[in-house]
Write a structure and sequence with these properties.
2 domains, alpha/beta, homotetramer, Rossmann fold
């Protein structure tokens, strides 16, 4: 019998002061296919209780720890227990709850990067493969419809053979030293014990690489990094530029900074092939510029009613052209695709191909490998560092 | 005791093929404060059933008509019945269900324009006042944080005395004749029995006027309209331009078209005072341009972490600057403000002033009066037609 | 024998403090086809002498008045005397020197508007026709290559039948009262004796109408104007909006203001036909946006090497795409086209059709008629005022 | 006695098919301070004759070679002979005519890059110093008023200490193999004998470096280059990315490509300091974006009437704000500043400091050194290559 119901979600992390927890909840809520029914929102049980109450959860399902959540949810009847967990903790608390969730039979949505270290990522990857459960890593930006369109334009040959990829993610929010009291994010994201071996490169460099590989369809082959720790008192990189060589010979550059004073979050990608080029940036997220030589530039526009868009773009759009969708909708696209795929899986039906297009374990592994390699390259006197999983 | 729970919503209309129904549901879902628990989604009971099932509603609360919904919901225990209805039907089915909802004690969110005729609007207005229930009319665009910021910049004197208002809403979707089979919207929106005496002016001209009055703080005093029915076979205006005079002497113009071939939905407003001017457009919704003479232009940017923004903008923002929010978030802002105000009302507490900033019955009345006046002016040989409620 | 030489220009007006005189000289200089050899730069002989010396003129050809210039130049041998005059005086000093120049056998480039009154314009028009001499009126904006491209897209049917024209010219420089000492422009341009019956509408409204008629190929049929004199102490309009009806039924609006605080000179036109729409604005002068329904938007780009552009755009471009040209090049295009046509005329050869595309007496007459009609309509209680030459 | 006259210019190169020759002539003409009176326009005497005639030169001053020009001009009376030469030949014909011009007492304007090799540049530099004559190297982009404003904002401390420089120059015109018949530029610019050891890096990479050093006030210290020859059959780089380290510790990146398919000439620079950041791009050349953290972004606008601009920006602007100036005006600014300085020198007066702000021998030397180093680094396995003159 068809399992026609909302999926039940439990959340780990995302208590008071968490930016990304709130984003995950909005993304999960938006399309009415998921309901938050349980949570362990903080390592501090009081904070978890406060968060759960604010989120209208039943008291019995606000947990003091994720261990408790797994144990008690598992004990609930099948038609009540959570289907999956959403894990939105700092990086150093990714591995343990994810592994436990999977081993207890819960599917997982995990905030990026996958883990604290590449070693953990490889181990987690094995668990994912062994359990066969569904895993989604929220590399937000590949959820944008025009990013999906860009990928299709590359894969359908509109751009020809890809020669060059420019990707950049300039932020300015760490332009000065910020204490953890002032900004919870600034605290853990600049602390190697909680963030991992990279700062800026782990936080946003991984997004940029993921976007570059997703759109271009290319795989990184080697890299040359110049990483900087601009402000004294910091231990991790807050800025860097990475030369890229892809398998097959295309080249590129990845620019990421958290000290680009005044910059917000204008992630941008440009891809050039031997037939055409394209350009997308988050600040104008609903447009995709395509440049064919000797022809007028084209502006592809996101919109539910746009006949020339690919099925991938259309499946990730909610409003007519000109009514802008944004970051939260991109995030929600990953949740909706994950939820649709999971529902199909639970029902034993075949998911549509567009639903399967959400970031998963391979993206996670590559991201963690990128972090390791980029730090190593940053310390090397040699120009090129080979990238290998 | 504090009533800490999600608000329960019933929906009227929004069945298969409805664009705006889906938008209302996303807007209601987004912030996790409202849950859809009942609905009469179509005048066709089968379609209502299909819609309800797709939305995961309990069978017992999918109704064949709104009359049935009101009756049965009213009979439910107080802690189960819906708190409010969201009415998303075509214009000719606004008055009846809204009046009945109110008379049965349910608060109402209603899609704009308020009613089919100005007469209905006045009558509805009386019912709203008599029942004292909460009423929200979803003039979407005043939900944008930077529109709220614009209003604050006018009201706090940054622009000085307002001299001039330009507002425009160019659409192109009715550039050719479209049958109702092809596009359900094109059907009822061009049919006077379901749409009212105006086409373009009712559909989007009212949005433009609402935006102009909201931002400028001015009230329309007289107008001069040139309305056009561009395509043969149509009975309503599909295009028009309206000269505006506001109380106090400022002037302006309102441009609206549905035959601006190739245009999407780039609603735009410019307001000029004797100290400074401002400019906002939906296509770049997260920016607000402020121009002071003899100084660099300023770009105000939406964002949860932006220290210079007013409390009104900040209360209607979810993401840090540079992570774009869009149309659905603007829509959700009205729902969230309505929900917060309603929760306060249910709890007997005072709502914060920012929550009360959602469009209500006065906006609705003025919009319906605008439709009447603009059609009358369009037919007049006299230049100016006095605007009065 | 072919007359292969630079054309010799005399200038009337353009002395110290003149903005537009300097612009005319740059425009005439730019392409090396014209040389300034004589001038009567001011009604004040001392100022004329200073200006002439600064411009490296031979003393013998710096004149105390234009009457003196005509007399003495006429007495020079044919291979020395000026070929044409460039008249850049305030509006009330357009008619007399232009008529005299023509009657003395000199071709004329004249700054717009053509004359102080419509009566003068009609009379001048007769003189132009009688003398058969070449006359160019510098409506700058039709000199932009992408404006020419826009005209071609309309005339070659790309847009289909034109339905709608939006044209706007918002300026802010008269946002406050400015004395003539502070700003020479502000002085005469707000003085009816020197500027004519209209202020804003004469100064920039005529540019907007000219652009609208040029691009759309339509002729104004009737209009309805709301003119405002915003600042007390002024006698002429400093702001206005005009509803437009064109012959054949298309409609439009013309917005012009000099009190749009903070606005610069972003003249903008949008034209919508039953097949496509287009958009051009001075602020992004090298782009022309073309919108076909159900296709990606197109950005046509100015550039000497752009294969898809019309011969009209290409003949008015100097640099490769992406090296922006601007206002001075648009101005220079009129001079160059005038010069090329005049050289052909002097040589008895046929000018190319692209060279003939500069504004002339019909543009001037229509502009002056527009000023008369727009002022009359502004004072009328009737909605529509018929436009007739 | 004051020497109040136009400067007399001779041109070397710039015959039929030359893009940059025409640009130099427009730039020299524009402000009416320079007159072209002589030229050796091609190594082919017939072509030189044709070009000279088209430019209205006196037959006696159209030369068959630059050697002839120097000899004959030198023999003319002082009040007739050229003051300076403008040299617009391909790179391999820079050194010889420049040295000879100087040794014959003529000042020089030279198109960039300075010479074919760094060795030549050093030798030329000595000649310049020995002769004490004026030398201008036309690095066009530092002639833009908003680039000058950017430099001032850095040097006056508005940005604080500079941390990061991003500079990019993406072109697409060499996206496919183009024969010399099709495009004269494509011929010599991809030929090492005429272009030098670098292709893309010499042609536009040098512009980018010059812009970066000019605006930031920083000097390059070491670099790490990834150069590519994308199309088979080419011998020089057509693309590359260079990591930059500046003296004092700031870092940056320089991206240049001629195979960025569809790209035009959107040279762009971003500079970030510890107080603010700025951004300028040629496509929107009249705007300069300044970003202060926690304040609205600012848009500085070029314009002759803009009170907040520095004297450097104002001295290089001709039109009021909103009337765009472009590439040709930027180019003309170098000519005008050179001409003003030269006139002062001839008159024995002190030039104003703003006039001296044109690119000269140091820019040329550094550019040639950059070419040498970038090619060397491109071939090295070591990450960093020290940059030294």
């Amino acid at each position: 019998m068809m399992n026609h119901r909302k999926l039940r979600m439990g959340m780990i992390g995302g208590g008071p002061g968490s930016f990304i927890g709130a984003v995950h909840r909005i993304a999960a809520n938006m399309d009415g296919q998921i309901e938050l029914v349980a949570g362990a929102f903080s390592s501090n049980p009081e904070k978890s209780a406060i968060a759960g109450a604010e989120l209208f959860l039943d008291n019995s399902r606000i947990y003091q720890s994720y261990d408790e959540m797994f144990e008690k949810e598992k004990a609930l009847p099948k038609d009540q227990r959570i289907d999956f967990v959403s894990i939105v903790t700092p990086n150093h608390v990714h591995f343990d709850p994810t592994v436990k969730a999977l081993k207890n039979g819960f599917h997982v949505v995990l905030d990026k990067p996958m883990t604290l270290t590449y070693e953990e990522a490889k181990e987690l990857n094995k668990v994912i493969e062994e359990t066969g459960l569904l895993f989604c890593l929220t590399h937000t930006y590949t959820g944008y419809p025009m990013v999906k369109e860009a990928k299709q334009l590359v894969s359908n040959g509109t751009l020809g053979n890809i020669r060059k990829v420019y990707v950049e993610y300039p932020q300015g929010w760490l332009w000065k030293n910020v204490s953890e009291e002032e900004n919870k994010q600034a605290g853990w994201r600049t602390d190697p014990k909680r963030s991992g071996v990279a700062g800026c490169m782990g936080d946003i460099g991984t997004h940029a690489l993921n976007l570059a590989e997703y759109v271009s369809g290319l795989k990184l082959d080697k890299l040359c990094a110049d990483l900087n720790t601009t402000l004294s008192g910091r231990t991790l990189d807050d800025d860097g530029i990475v030369l890229l060589k892809f398998e097959g010979g295309a080249s590129g550059v990845l620019m990421a900074s958290q000290v680009a004073t005044g910059a917000e979050n204008n992630l941008k990608i440009r891809v050039y092939g031997d037939k055409a080029g394209l350009e997308w940036q988050q600040e104008d997220a609903n447009s995709l510029i395509v440049r064919h030589p000797e022809q007028p530039d084209q502006i592809y526009r996101a919109g539910a009613n746009v006949p020339y868009l690919s099925s991938y773009a259309l499946a990730n759009t909610r409003t007519p052209a000109g009514h802008p969708e944004g970051y939260l909708e991109a995030f929600a696209n990953h949740y909706r695709n994950f939820a649709r795929t999971l529902t199909a899986k639970l029902n034993g039906t075949e998911p549509e191909k567009e639903w399967l297009d959400f970031p998963s374990t391979e993206d996670g592994l590559r991201g963690m490998a990128f972090i390791e390699h980029v730090v190593k390259s940053g310390q090397s006197e040699q120009k090129w560092t080979k990238f290998k999983l």
